[in-house]
Specification:
This protein has 166 residues and is mostly helical. It has seven helices and no strands.
């Protein structure tokens, strides 16, 4: 079995458990919940098969849905981000970069990695909270949920990436 598949599986398992057991119970100021499992979708290397990204993304969303009681919301949002991830990654890498490059702070550079993280997390949160609320009657709460969760998730991902870099 390929070591990369095993690494993805353990990352999948750890992020699902951390999200389900710890992060789902954090709700700062009623609008900010860290959604760390987005980090898993962002970790796919360049030229990873798109069908595999979609499957991994769907299954992490499905696992989060099962543990969070959000029927289909995380699965749909994760699958959509998995669809966009290769194209978002191509916006921030050079054309002559290696085909198996991992999107890390070291390989992309700090500024590009921060922008990549913000765009991925913001896109995910817009889709997630739009499907979850399914109306725009309380659009201020919708905006605060998106903004608070995006800021909290981006900070958490950057801290993890900074620790992982060392």
């Amino acid at each position: 079995m390929n070591i990369e598949v095993i690494r993805h599986f353990f990352t999948f398992l750890i992020l699902c458990l951390v999200q389900a057991l710890v992060l789902n119970h954090i709700n700062l100021l009623g609008c900010a919940t860290p959604l760390l499992y987005v980090y898993f979708i962002m970790l796919f290397r360049r030229n990873f098969p798109k069908w595999a990204i979609l499957l991994w993304s769907f299954f992490i969303g499905l696992c989060i849905d099962v543990f969070s009681n959000t029927p289909g919301v995380a699965a749909a949002s994760s699958t959509f981000l998995g669809l966009l991830q290769p194209y978002l990654l191509n916006l921030f890498i050079q054309r002559d970069s290696p085909d198996d490059m991992l999107p890390t702070m070291k390989s992309l550079g700090v500024a590009k990695y921060v922008y990549y993280t913000i765009i991925c997390v913001f896109t995910y949160n817009v889709i997630f909270f739009t499907i979850e609320s399914f109306n725009f009657f309380n659009w201020l709460q919708w905006l605060m949920d998106i903004g608070g969760s995006t800021v909290l998730t981006v900070i958490l991902i950057l801290v993890i990436e900074n620790v992982r870099k060392r």
